[in-house]
Amino acid sequence: MASSMLSLASASASASASASLSLQENLKGKVKLGSVHFTSCLPGKTNSIIKANHFGRISMSVALNASRFEGIAMAPPDPILGVSEAFRADTDEKKLNLGVGAYRTEELHPYVLKVVKKAEQLMLERGENKEYLPIEGLAAFNKATAELLLGADNPVIKESRIATVQGLSGTGSLRLAAALVERYFPGSKVLLSSPTWGNHKNIFNDAGVPWSEYRYYDPKTVGLDFEGMIADIKAAPDGSFILLHGCAHNPTGIDPTPEQWEKIADVIHEKNHIAFFDVAYQGFASGSLDEDASSVRLFAARGMELIVAQSYSKNLGLYAERIGAINVVCSSAEAASRVKSQLKRLARPMYSNPPVHGARVVANVVGDPALFGEWKAEMEMMAGRIKNVRQKLYDSLMAKDKSGKDWSFILKQIGMFSFTGLNKAQSDNMTNKWHVYMTKDGRISLAGLSLAKCEYLADAIMDSYHNVS
Ligand code: PLA
What we know:
It is a single chain. It is built from 18 helices and 16 strands. The protein is α/β, with parallel strands linked by helices and about 475 residues long. Residues about 1-50 have low confidence and may be disordered. Ligand PLA binds near residues 80, 197 and 324. Its cofactor is pyridoxal 5'-phosphate. It is an enzyme of class 2 (transferase). One of its GO terms (molecular function) is L-aspartate:2-oxoglutarate aminotransferase activity.
């Protein structure tokens, strides 16, 4: 036994997984022990445990600290989804999660739309199967989503000039489109607004698409730097892709006016760029599906070719169903069918085909006039609740703050977020002192705020703004 311990010690000291494995094989063959259980804790990298029973069988497990994954560093938490993790770990009852953009009721509970429950009930009654979808997704969904985006009587749809493929919500749809750009427009740049939704940069980085930024937010006016935006789009190499937020710009909540959209379309057209819209909030910004799609429709009406990613996370509350679409508007039906075939080719090795549940929910809701009407009413209700807390937060700040600071920018912003202008240190104070969880760029999700918590939030903002530099 002493010799087996010795040989174990010398073999283990080499601390190599393969050496330990062959040792295990050797021991199996040669060592006969009674009922023994001993552990060798060696200096260095290896701890080995040998167990033997009275039938003479020996098993050994080797826990190696020297991992083959040693070179992989710990990733930082995600700037948005990591906020929810920190929120969950906080035990203070005053805590408020204004990080991720997820709609909550006035009681701050997640909300499943009634119309979604009805659609799901229908699906259960029909006893739908769970067969694979085609690579491009559910046909009824693809039809419904393109019509929702452009309007059913849009010539683009009538002339079959749109390639629509069901995607893994907004993010997956953006990623698939980024892969198309990388493959068929190698070296072309995507221009992102400064600032933009943090994940845009990750998406284009991972797809290997170079990007740069165009000016968007002007901290002096807490508004749009329209001149800067136009100048930067003009200065970009001809044929670049210009990423635009269709409505409710994230994180600023600042959208161009209809006249400004016309000018943006002019420059994109002049420069032979391609507009690449991210539409994650259709119907959720203004409460109207048509109004929130007006930017995209304006470009389509000019006959411009476009890429549009859509998401149903917010407007139908289908966050976890991962349902969205990628649409490529082309100048001919023939081009659209070629583009679609290549989108499918890109999707197949990535995830093969998309999930069916959310697609059926959307198809049922949009395809049924009664359910469609109910959906619009619920969307107006959600958008209305957000507008109410926006107003109450502004009123609370104005009532409390005697410094003369103008908080009216909060009312000018649109959508589920407010960009407060708080810097990182001030945002940290919001979280560390007040248990208000938000992203470090000063963004708060008003969809996670209740009327009852507006006063508390106003106190937290005032303290952070005036007492922390
Ligand atoms: N595009 C924009 C502009 C978004 O704000 C979001 C979500 C998406 C796409 C993607 O959403 P989806 O994949 O769920 O369809 N932005 C959230 C969530 C709401 C997130 O970061 O993932 C946000 O808090 O900013």
